Amino acid sequence: AQKVTQAQTEISVVEKEDVTLDCVYETRDTTYYLFWYKQPPSGELVFLIRRNSFDEQNEISGRYSWNFQKSTSSFNFTITASQVVDSAVYFCALRDTGTASKLTFGTGTRLQVTL
Amino acid sequence: NAGVTQTPKFRILKIGQSMTLQCTQDMNHNYMYWYRQDPGMGLKLIYYSVGAGITDKGEVPNGYNVSRSTTEDFPLRLELAAPSQTSVYFCASSYSQGQVGYTFGSGTRLTVV
């Protein structure tokens, strides 16, 4: 069975600080896909990034960066120079390659960025 | 292109009442899903469908039913509502390829009193 663990329940930072959100996953599949979603206070789910299990190249997109390490089954997300608008719940998710390619979510990390 | 449309956005039910949460997508996705999100928790899969006429249970199916008569529609039925079904419900759709993410609806906030 798939499992995604986000050990950090809530993180509070002051604006302009860097913050890293941790994600550890478990799967028996050799091919799988990892995602990060953002859920702002308005409640919708916003797709941030997708990573394939066979692509360990890390990525930077503006203030966001992702660190995928297959050896430790981790897919961490870093926000550089955080802003108040980054305040949200962030979910890590794992999509399998079985029937219906179901998405398994972690419990989320609530990020609070204050002035 | 509307994406995934869920109705209603909010609903209050009394214990024992029934209702249907509607979900429609216009992207010709073959896969559709229903998730629930309880406070402070991640999303848990209730039911899913890989195509019209095909549905299957997810992680937390008890108290719910679904149908998939068309590619576009995937309604979720709550029979005999209970306080434990108070949650936010998300419908999602996807192509079959795993590397493609889901498209989520905006959610339905349901309170059972």
SSE blueprint and pairings:
The complex is a heterodimer of chains A (115) and B (113).
Chain A: E1 3-5, E2 10-14, E3 19-21, E4 24-26, E5 33-39, E6 46-52, E7 59-61, E8 64-69, E9 74-79, E10 88-95, E11 103-105, E12 109-114
Parallel strand pairs in A: 2-12
Antiparallel strand pairs in A: 1-4, 3-9, 5-6, 5-10, 7-8, 8-9, 10-11, 10-12
Chain B: E1 4-7, E2 10-13, E3 19-25, E4 31-37, E5 43-51, E6 54-57, E7 64-66, E8 76-78, E9 87-94, E10 103-104, E11 108-112
Parallel strand pairs in B: 2-11
Antiparallel strand pairs in B: 1-3, 3-8, 4-5, 4-9, 5-6, 7-8, 9-10, 9-11
Q: Your description of this structure?
A:
The complex is a heterodimer of chains A (115) and B (113). With 115 residues, chain A is mainly β. Chain A is 0% helix and 52% strand. Chain A has no helices and 12 strands. In chain A, the strands form 3 sheets. In chain A, strands 2, 5, 6, 10, 11 and 12 form a 6-stranded mixed β-sheet that branches. Chain A is globular. The N and C termini of chain A lie far apart (41 Å). Chain B is mainly β. Chain B has no helices and 11 strands. Chain B has strands at 4-7, 10-13, 19-25, 31-37, 43-51, 54-57, 64-66, 76-78, 87-94, 103-104, 108-112. In chain B, the strands form 2 sheets. In chain B, strands 2, 4, 5, 6, 9, 10 and 11 form a 7-stranded mixed β-sheet that branches. In chain B, strands 1-3-8-7 form a 4-stranded antiparallel β-sheet, with no helix packed on it. The N and C termini of chain B lie far apart (36 Å). The model of chain B has no long low-confidence stretch (mean pLDDT 93). At the A-B interface, strand 6 and strand 11 of A face strand 4, strand 5 and strand 9 of B.
